[in-house]
Design brief:
heterodimer; A: 313 residues; Rossmann fold; Alpha-Beta Plaits; 2 domains; six-stranded mixed beta sheet; four-stranded antiparallel beta sheet; elongated; B: 285 residues; mainly alpha; 13 helices
Chain lengths: 313, 285
């Protein structure tokens, strides 16, 4: 759906994006992670056709962005990190204006607006002035705006920034709905654990370079090298630890007060074999599960690596 | 077939007419113009009460209203057009507009027509005031229409300048100052420049500037264009002809206003084209 090939954006001497490449298949949700000034917004603006890259190519649905921007605009829905609204315009008029700007015939607009307001849970605010909405409502309205022309690709730059926890949950629910609808989404966020739950894959960008990209599990594994499993047993913990130690992919054990943490380098199949061994040896397992790593941790660890490499150089 | 209105124009018209500013501007405009006309009559009737009716009163009022209206338009147009693009930028809505299917040209034209519709509304609302002159005769509605058309073309020109500076500068304040500076330049600086040039030709060649020299320096000035039209219609402002070193009438006497209108149209096209080029983030093919 989206192919970014060796994208570079330079402002004078400053390199905002450097040789960035990525590919997002149709229906995927790609999370763009990176600190402020890493080049996320610049990349997203280039993909949205709002900025000319210094070099590199962007293909959307097989069409080269630089060759047919007008066609591409109909395929992209863009929601910037900061945006404004027009005073003296009501919610339905606001959406109607963008429908018109996307060339949607007036007889089709009412249904589109009704559906979108329902999706973002703003149906009861149809006649309210946009300016009177809360921040969360404005964010949702802006998301609805980016969907008026039913785009194939959604580019959402920090859609949850500045929202209170409740509004953030509401935004997340809408994004899940969009995922179900099969939209391809490129999303950036500084709230990393949220992306882990939502995205099919993520990319970590630092100083304009893509440091690592892949599925969330792959990145966790690449970063830590090991996964962590938590095992809780009834009774004899020593036997359990002995059996776990005998497993080939185990990489360290920590005995906590009420559970055992196991560092593990293997696959899901190998983990299930470990559980099977415990049960076979009459260990009463009451809990066996993988500890979800904090993505923020992973991000800090990876970007720390980049900084250390740079300092060495 | 349904006529498709430029979405930017439709939205702007809705927003503009909803606020208090548009009615306030219209009221202030009519109060100033109408007040000027009333004041003129009061002063005129007081001085001429014993001398009877002078048919020139209508022509005096007409020229006064036409000049006053042009002055008001020169003052109002920059204020309306200079925030058009920079305002979108400041409000952080420009990117949202640019990523729609609207071309940068449609956005610019939408902005210009929205501002112009406001100005045309002011001009149309002044028709009853201008109609006073028909009570006295001596002028035809075609004359008044010609003045209105000239003023609209001038408004298009200054509107294009306002939009150009608005596209060029991020801040509305800077765009507004630049547009007013431009207005001052074409109205006052051209006259001062012409005076300097005149003293230069006198000192060096012992003559006044020639017709074409005057045309080059003075024709951007809308007051000179309007003066030339009023001279043709009323016989007043014959000094315009003298500025251009023209004696007598004929086609050549029309040149100042024809060239002024042509200048306005060509410059409008250039400024609008440049504005579309500036706001366009990626080449549109």
């Amino acid at each position: 759906m989206l192919v970014i090939d060796n994208l570079t954006k330079r402002y004078g001497k400053f390199l905002a994006v450097s040789g960035l490449s990525l590919e997002i298949p149709r229906g995927d949700i790609f999370g763009f992670v990176g600190p402020n000034g890493a080049g996320k917004t610049t990349t997203m603006k280039i993909v949205a056709g709002l900025m000319q890259p210094t070099s590199g190519r962007v293909l959307i649905d097989g069409v080269d962005l630089s060759k047919n921007i007008k066609e591409i605009r109909g395929k992209i829905g863009y929601m910037p990190d900061f945006f404004g609204v027009y005073d003296d315009l009501k919610v339905d008029e606001y959406l109607d204006f963008y429908c018109a700007a996307y060339g949607i015939a007036s007889y089709q607009r009412k249904k589109i607006i009704d559906d979108l307001l329902e999706l973002v849970d703003l149906s009861d605010k149809r006649d309210a002035y946009v300016d009177s909405l809360s921040r969360g409502m404005k964010q949702r309205l802006c998301l609805a705006r980016s969907l008026v022309h039913d785009p194939l690709l959604l580019i959402l730059d920090e859609p949850a920034s500045g929202l209170d926890p409740r509004a953030r949950v509401e935004m997340k629910e809408i994004l899940k709905e969009l995922k179900k609808m099969g939209k391809t989404i490129l999303i950036s966020s500084h709230i990393l654990p949220e992306l882990a739950e939502l995205c099919t894959s993520i990319g970590i960008i630092e100083k304009g370079k893509m440091i690592v990209s892949g599925s969330v599990d792959e990145i966790m594994l690449q970063s830590h090298g090991t996964r962590t499993f938590r095992v809780k047993v009834l009774g004899d913990e020593d036997t359990a630890i002995r059996i776990i130690q005998e497993q080939p992919m185990v990489d360290g054990i920590i005995r906590n007060t009420d559970n055992i943490e196991v560092g593990f380098k293997g696959s899901d199949e190998q983990a299930s074999l470990m559980l099977h061994e415990l049960i076979k040896n009459d260990v009463h397992v009451v809990f066996f599960g993988e500890v979800q790593r904090n993505l923020e941790d992973v991000f800090m660890r990876i970007t720390e690596g980049v900084l250390q490499d740079e300092n060495k150089n | 077939m349904k006529i498709r209105i430029n979405p930017v124009l439709e939205k702007e018209a809705k927003i503009k007419m909803r606020g208090w500013k548009a009615p306030a501007l219209l009221t202030a405009y009519l109060v100033l113009l109408g007040g000027g006309a009333i004041l003129f009559f009061v002063l005129n009737n007081l001085s001429r009460y014993l001398a009877g009716f002078d048919p020139r009163t209508a022509l005096d009022l007409y020229t006064l209203l036409a000049m006053f209206q042009l002055g008001l338009l020169l003052f109002i147009t920059p204020a309306i057009t200079a925030p058009s693009i920079s305002g979108e930028r400041e409000r952080q809505t420009l990117d949202l507009l640019l990523c729609t299917r609207l071309s940068s040209w449609s956005i610019i034209i939408g902005k210009l027509t929205a501002s112009l519709s406001h100005i045309i509304l002011l001009i149309i609302s002044s028709i009853p005031i201008f109609s006073i002159i028909f009570l006295y005769g001596g002028l035809s509605p075609v004359d008044v229409l010609m003045i209105f058309l000239f003023q609209i073309i001038t408004a298009v020109f200054l509107g294009s300048v306002g939009i150009f500076f608005s596209s060029m500068f991020k801040k509305t304040t800077v765009a507004t100052i630049m547009t007013y500076t431009f207005v001052l330049f074409i109205t006052i600086a051209t006259l001062i420049g012409f005076a300097f040039y005149g003293s230069f030709t006198h000192a060096l060649f012992g003559r006044a500037p020639g017709t074409w020299e005057a045309i080059v320096i003075l024709c951007p000035n809308p007051f000179i264009g309007l003066g030339a039209i009023l001279d043709k219609q009323t016989g007043y402002f014959s000094f315009v002809r003298s500025l251009f070193n023209m004696s007598g009438g004929g086609f050549i006497a029309n040149l100042p206003w024809i060239i002024n209108i042509a200048f306005s149209i060509v410059m409008s096209a250039i400024f609008l084209w440049l504005s579309a080029l500036i706001i366009r983030p990626v080449k549109e093919r």
